[in-house]
Specification:
Layout lengths: L21 E14 L2 E12 H10 L10 E10 L8 H22 L3 E12 L5 E12 L10 E12 L3 E9 L3 H5 L12 H14 L4
Length: 213
């Protein structure tokens, strides 16, 4: 952080809900975009299910080393502060659209192909705010030697923004199919045995808890 970087508090993330095998892989403060005549800075925390990544790497003898399941939360601050009469609700649409755009780009950077925007779904956060989450889907192409039953793994992601004591962004992605079947792992208790429904439920639990003390 340089001297001209604003002090942006970190978002509150209930790490006890992440489960075993998760690690924080990034913590950064950076300028994200501009809105309402101000620079929008964000303090972002990114967490990854490292156990799932390592299990796939082991199952493919190192042929596939991919971030399969991650979650991020960002707390925003404006510099200079928004002008009088310009409330956070007025710039929230810009934050939402920029958040989706950045999330799509991030998925592509993570090696996810055929990224497309999908449907919307509402959730309520711990502070009682209603959040409209935007679905983003894609697929992870696999090497020919990695799996006999599939040439790609479908991925489902979500991203949303809301305002309470600050403006928050949250999102993440996970496999939309069971990886044990893809990679031929038969043990029911394998790290690879998570279903789309289980991952989706865990993801939205994390979103609801952002900002919860």
């Amino acid at each position: 952080m340089t001297d001209d970087t604003p002090d942006v508090p970190a978002p509150t993330v209930r790490t006890d809900r992440l489960g075993d095998g998760w690690e924080r892989v990034e913590a950064s403060v950076e300028r994200l975009f501009d809105a309402g005549g101000a620079d929008v800075w964000g303090h972002t925390l990114v967490f990854e299910d490292r156990a799932l990544r390592e299990a796939v790497r082991d199952a493919t003898d190192g042929a596939v080393d991919q971030s399969w399941r991650f979650f991020f939360a960002t707390r925003l601050r404006f510099r200079p502060p928004l002008a009088p009469g310009v409330g956070t609700a007025m710039v929230l649409p810009t934050v939402k659209s920029e958040g989706v755009r950045s999330f799509v780009a991030d998925l592509r950077d993570r090696g996810i192909a055929d990224v497309e925007r999908g449907r919307r779904e509402r959730v309520r956060t711990a502070s009682g705010q209603r959040v409209r989450m935007r679905q983003v889907t894609g697929r992870v192409p696999l090497p020919e030697t990695a799996a006999d039953s599939a040439d790609a793994v479908p991925i489902e992601g979500w991203v949303g923004a809301w305002t309470d004591d600050a403006i928050h962004l949250a999102g993440g992605a996970y496999p939309a199919t069971r990886l044990d079947a893809v990679f031929g792992v038969e043990a029911d208790d394998s790290v690879l045995a998570g279903s789309r429904e289980r991952y989706r439920s865990a993801f939205f639990d994390l979103v609801r808890a952002v900002g919860e003390e």
